[in-house]
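My current task is to audit a protein record that another person submitted. What it holds is a sequence and that sequence's fold in token form. Thanks in advance; the entry in question is below.
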Amino acid sequence: MRHIEIPYENERGRRYRVFEILPGFLSWSILLLPLILSFINQTLSVLFIITYLLVWFLKSIGLNVRSIQGYRTLELHKNLPWSQMLEELVTGKVSQPDRAVPTWHYENVQNLMDKPNPISADNIYHAIVIASYNESLEILEPTVQAVIDSDYDMKRVILVMAYEERNGAQSEPAIKEIVKKYKKVFKHVIASKHPVIPGEVKGKGGNITYAGRILETYVVEQKINPLNVIVTTLDADNRPHKHYLNALSYVYAMTESPVHVSYQPIPMFTNNIWDVPAPMRVIATGNSFWNIILSLRPHMLRNFSSHAQSLQTLIDTDYWSVRTIVEDGHQFWRTYFRYDGRHEVYPLYLPIYQDAVLAETLSKTLKMQFIQLRRWAWGATDIAYVAEKGFFTKNRVPKTDLFLKFARLLDGHVNWASAPLILALAAFIPSQISPDNFAAAQLPLIASRIQTIALTGIFITLFLSLKTLPPKPARYKHHRSVFMVLQWVLLPLTTIMYNSLSALYSQTRLMFGRYIGEFDVTTKTVITDDKKKVT
């Protein structure tokens, strides 16, 4: 499929609008169903709610198991000797068996000796695209430094600083300082100033797409094969693990057809976790562990935040969409349809450390957190896109695979909006409608028992979250650690007030065609050792 772009608003017909309405319609229908059933048949309403609670109880058990498995996998991969393993992949010569090296590495070396891949690890270049809008040097420089601190040869890394011309190019002074200071560290440094282009949504997609085309020009001039260049996109506050580039090179060199693959590290929102208010800490930790869980379910993985693809893949897909504010997740579907369904996401069990939401004041922080989640939830727009391209446009995508992916996409967004509210409130509805009905009167007690058992899983997340915390900054006293435990009483509130309502808000806007046409940049704020805030 060649035409993979999202249609403009005036190009979306009735059929497209039906699928834009679908997620919001289903979410609201599920939310209203306990109330409607309570007027029609109390027994049916109680059975529906209990069944719903039990299904999610079983899901919670699975999620807790996955959290433990994911944490152990993450820790294992963080401690692997990736540099040594990558070198052995190139030379084909392995050292004496080492307990620190997993057996699958020796199998990979042997497989490459028997059947070499078209991409050799020693021919790989990395392009790191850092997108910025209004961030200061205090925000951007630690990200660049984290790349430099990687256990990798920076002379095989191209740094691309992508910033916006709009609103006065607020990041330009910081970008110029970075280029001047670090241009000799990398193979090459590109400063890309994205102009305002008609037809583009004001957002990250247009910015990194413009930078990607400049990168392509440079690569062609250097006579480098675009398939040998892996492009990783980072936000201004994203800091890759020191083994990320080696691990990505390793997996890329083992991929038979890398043009058909995206590579997804694990976003973890821990950079400033000690500094942010308690509600933001709970949300950030929950999002981090959700990303860890997803990494163990490759069939569910989609491009999110920081991700990597070959430059050749980006050329084939005409880079990222410039018509959506959720260019990361949407890039999965662009690639999927461009290659007629031949596209997978490979997990990288290494973190990209990111900031939790923090603005200048508490009120602004609370508001900004909702805006960030609302933007993520705007990924519901992909439902109509996938339906239109998959079911109503001529293509060679395997229909069973397409249907399963579409169903997971729809189910994920509907549950995002409806499940927390149903789990928290639905059990009280029948008793309010018919207080004399015995089953309805007992339902809140039954629900409470089920939820109490399910909530024991919080202790698993709490324990693992403490294990993943960065060292406590010296500016905080010991009682700050106590708050890291007590904050979890906020989980039910943050799940409803932020996760559920942000998704419901986005889906409802989409239902009524009130499109979000501009990327709401999350304010980046750092706290210095003297507790001053720098934005």
The mean pLDDT is 93. Residues 9-73+406-534 form one domain.
